[in-house]
Amino acid sequence: MSDLMVDFIISLDGYASADGWPGFWGMEVPEYLAWLGEDSENAHTTLMGATTYRLMSGFAQEAPEDDPAFAGLNAMPKVVFSSTLEAPLSWTGTELVRRDAVEAVRERKRHDSRPLRTLGSLSLCRSLLRAGVVDRFRVVVFPVVTGATGRERIFDGYPDIALDLVESRTFDGRLQLLEYVPTVLDGPPADTTGFDHVP
C-alpha cells in the first residue's frame, strides 16, 4: 500500500506561475534548493499529465548532467497519464498510461509500496483530490502576489476540502512549506459559532 501526495509551489494568491517572472518567482533561495535536492532523492514515483511531461522532459534534456534539481528526477520512476502522447517516451524511466488516471492511481496505491507524488499537472491533481485518493497535500508558498500577471490559478474548480496541518517549515526566512492531510467535503461544514458569514 502506498501514499499519494499532491505537491505544488504557489504564489500567495494561489497561482502556479506568472507572465514575465522567472522560475520560482526569482526566489531560488539556497536552503530551499538544497531541500529540493534532498527531497528528489527520496524513493517515490512521480505522476504527471501530458502538459507537465512535455515541459519537464524538455527542461531535463537541457539541464546540465550535474543539476541537482533534475538528477534525482531523471533517476526516479515517472508515470504520465495521457491520451495524446505516443510510446516510447523519450524521458528515461517514464511509463505512459492511457486509461483513467483515478482508477490507475487507486490500483497503484493498492499494489505498490513506493510512495506516489504529483508534479505540476493541475487538472490531474484536481481529479485525484476530488476522487478522495490523495493522502497528503503539500504547498510551498512564495511570498509574492501576482494578481496582474499570474497564470494557472491552482484551486479553481476544486471541491471544498478541509486541511489538517501535519508539517510546516520556513526556508531562508521567506518561503513557507505547509503539508496537510486533506478531507474532501460534501459542502461547507455546519456553522457552530452562531455568526452569519454570508456578506
TrEMBL record:
Pfam families: RibD_C
Matches recorded under InterPro entries: DHFR-like_dom_sf, RibDG_C, Riboflavin_Biosynth_HTPR
Organism for this UniProt entry: Streptomyces hazeniae
Stretches assigned to the Bacterial bifunctional deaminase-reductase C-terminal domain: 4-176
The protein, known as: Dihydrofolate reductase family protein
Highest taxon above the source species: Bacteria
